[in-house]
Amino acid sequence: MTKQIAILGSTGSIGTNSLRVLEALGEDYQVYGMTAHNNVKLFAEQVRKFLPKVVGLTNPKKLDEFRGYLGDSDVEILCGADSLTEISGSADVDIVIGAIVGSAGLEAILKAAKAGKIIAIANKEPLVIAGELLMATAKENGAVILPVDSEHSAIFQSLHAGDSDEVNKIILTASGGPFRGASAETIAGATIAEALAHPTWNMGRKISIDSATMMNKALEIIEAKWLFDIEVDKIDVLVHPESIVHSMVEFVDGSVIAQLSGPDMCLPIQYALTYPKRVRGITRHLKLEEIGLLTFEKADMEIFKALKLGFEVGRVGGSAAAVFNAANEMAVEEFLAGNIKFVTIVDLIEHCLSKHNINKNLTLEELLAADAWARREVTECLKKSR
Ligand SMILES: NC(=O)c1ccc[n+]([C@@H]2O[C@H](COP(=O)([O-])OP(=O)(O)OC[C@H]3O[C@@H](n4cnc5c(N)ncnc54)[C@H](OP(=O)(O)O)[C@@H]3O)[C@@H](O)[C@H]2O)c1
């Protein structure tokens, strides 16, 4: 039977790759709904090409412009942030692709979990903020959460080689980002263009900055903790600049099982959509003889302080992760707007964590309050420093 797909954030890097994958998968998959925020020109082109039943435009200020680009169309248009939950919880949807960046995707992913959907999740921030709640909600309602993040897809695939009580540790690989091996002085003076210039992956702006600070890996540690129900102390990070080994699982007998492929998100997206089946796809197959050498090195937690913080936050849990994520979202926005230096991103995160009183076992409202507190704290801190 044809699977009906909802893509939350179809205009982004993961969203556009998801549409390429769906197009190649053919008639077994149909785009039922999709959402976008600002890029209404591309959104209108996508709607005309994929003919969804319903679309959500989360930024109402863009509605007239969107209608202008769209022209004549039968599509139902929902407008505002609520369109996300309406589409992700729709009874007609089988698979929800979470491709929004940041905490904006949280409530829609939770709604999909409550509605018992298959959730192909790239949007890691909801798992960081509310992993415990999200995984419990999914379990309670029969929803299935499948990782799209390449590292977590690799771990998910590698875990099939043994039982959960046979896992010794998870090894998350990291490209190291644009500042791998750079000195603290070089990193301190990094420009926006330098921080956005990722050596192996072509991604959205926020995750590119997160890769440069290694905050992305820090978020992924917490993401892995919830997705695979594993203690943070059983997670290692290993820098692997070629981005071919996407992560590994070490079992108790010493065997290490890894997943390898080129740096192309279409493969993990496709695997989440076709799981448990594998099908031919659009990803170019690896030619290891052309790559020759695969290298690995220890991550430098003194230079990349975000990584150290990620382990600490993952250990303490509770509201710390919501604060960690929100402070980062705010700080990255300020950096990309040219208002703060690159090094200030992690300084602001550290400041918020040091001032926050951690609470455990929180409701969604309490987690959102912790998120809001951290955003206010960043704003206050920047006001004082100006
Ligand atoms: N890119 C990758 O290769 C990659 C790999 C692994 C994991 N991820 C994760 O996947 C997620 C998406 O990353 P990305 O690189 O695809 O980001 P992106 O290119 O910046 O795309 C973000 C998407 O979210 C929409 N959006 C932005 N703000 C929104 C808001 N306030 N409300 C609703 N929608 C909003 C954007 O709409 P408009 O464009 O229309 O404004 C766009 O469709 C992130 O959580 C990231 O960590 C990405």
Notes on the protein architecture:
The protein is α/β, with parallel strands linked by helices and 386 residues long. The protein has 2 domains: 3-147, Rossmann fold (3-Layer(aba) Sandwich), CATH 3.40.50.720; 152-317, no CATH class. The chain is 49% helix and 16% strand. It contains 17 helices and 12 strands. It has helices spanning 13-25, 40-50, 63-70, 82-88, 106-114, 124-141, 150-159, 184-188, 192-196, 205-213, 215-228, 266-274, 288-291, 305-316, 319-336, 342-355, 364-385, and strands at 3-8, 29-36, 54-57, 76-79, 95-98, 118-121, 144-147, 167-174, 235-239, 245-251, 256-260, 297-298. The strands form 2 sheets. Strands 4-3-2-1-5-6-7 form a 7-stranded parallel beta sheet, sandwiched between helices. It has a 5-stranded mixed beta sheet with strand order 11-10-8-9-12, with helices on one face. Helix 2 (40-50) packs across helix 3 and helix 6 (124-141) runs parallel beside helix 11. The protein is globular and about 55 Å long. The mean pLDDT is 97. The chain binds NADP nicotinamide-adenine-dinucleotide phosphate. NADP nicotinamide-adenine-dinucleotide phosphate binds at residues 9-15, 36-39, 58, 99-101, 104, 122-125, 149, 201, 203-207, 265.
